[in-house]
Amino acid sequence: MLVDTVRTRLGSALFSRVAGPDGPVNRARIHDTPGPRWFAPDSPVRTVHGDASMFIGGIAALLLQSLHPLAMAAVAGHSGYKGDPWGRLQRTSTFLAVTTFGTADHAQHAVDQVRAVHTRIRGTAPDGRRYRADDPHLLTWVYTAEAYCFLRAHQRFGARPLTPEQGDRYVAEAARVAQALGADTTPTGTAGLLRRLDDYRPELRATPAAREAARFLLLTPPLPWAARPAYGVLAANAVGLLPGWARRALTLPHVPVVEETLVRLGGHGMTRTIRWAMRPPA
């Protein structure tokens, strides 16, 4: 049927972009290898990380993370996000998939690989401060921003929003991966997550590098023109997830009535479409 053909082609195109050329092999290894996992099949972290709302939450997390000058300096100096944006996305999505759904051995191996890379990433930020990617304080910031944005996106656009108790479990489960990477003082509930986000606020500001990253993500994404309207819907809803102070720091527009109606409806439509396209065949 034509509908099935369209769904298959769209799903394949999305999966190829997000997972890269090794995506099918990695997917089989992650899901088909027998053995114990870090998280149970019904765990909230699996519900959140396996949902199409991550397309919005991921953009929001990158914007929020950029507000820490040292974290942004490390990204700007070492990640190659402009020269190889899809490669970075594919490596990140594979890491999330392995640690969320893969065997415990594969998850630990993925963590060990990232930690080995982090030990080599060091430098000096434009303000003269030294940074290192394995700094537990910076790793905790990265986790905090991700957990906040991923959970917030899921609660707004997910197919099965979590209960408050499940939300607390999600924060605790995400913290397990962060701690394995070397983060410290990670919150284990939603209330603690919000407090930790506030704790970082005195350290946060929009550096020129952060504003440049925001322009890249929101205005000049590495996509063909035909795909940009759909991406624009996702990006607009990612901006809508950010705390007001983060939006103001990045000078991002805020039009409440439009965001809460047209933009949000578009976000629901896009996530439903992605969910439909990437659903495994029956």
Could you explain how this protein is built, in words?
With 282 residues, this protein is mainly alpha-helical. Helix content is 68%, strand content 2%. It has 14 helices and two strands, in the order αααααααββααααααα. It has helices at 2-19, 23-32, 44-49, 54-65, 69-78, 85-101, 104-118, 136-157, 164-181, 190-200, 208-218, 228-241, 244-249, 256-277; strands at residues 122-124, 130-132. It has a two-stranded antiparallel sheet. α2 runs parallel beside α6, α4 packs across α12 (228-241) and α8 runs antiparallel to α9. The longest helix is centred in the middle third of the chain and has 22 residues, at 136-157. The model has no long low-confidence stretch (mean pLDDT 93).
Main traits of this protein?
mainly alpha; 282 residues; 2 strands; two-stranded antiparallel sheet
Task: Record the SSE blueprint.
Layout: H1 2-19, H2 23-32, H3 44-49, H4 54-65, H5 69-78, H6 85-101, H7 104-118, E1 122-124, E2 130-132, H8 136-157, H9 164-181, H10 190-200, H11 208-218, H12 228-241, H13 244-249, H14 256-277
Antiparallel strand pairs: 1-2
Largest sheet, in brief, is: 2 strands, antiparallel
Q: How large, in whole angstroms, is the Cα Rg?
A: 18 Å
Proportion of residues in β-strands:
under 5%
Order of secondary-structure elements? HHHHHHHEEHHHHHHH
Write down the overall geometry.
Answer: globular
In terms of quaternary structure, what is this? single chain
Structural class: mainly alpha
The CA-CA distance between the termini, in Å, is 14 Å
Uncertain runs are none
* Order of the strands making up the biggest sheet: 1-2
Mean pLDDT: 93
Number of helices: 14
Helix coverage percent: 55-70%
Count of DSSP strands: 2
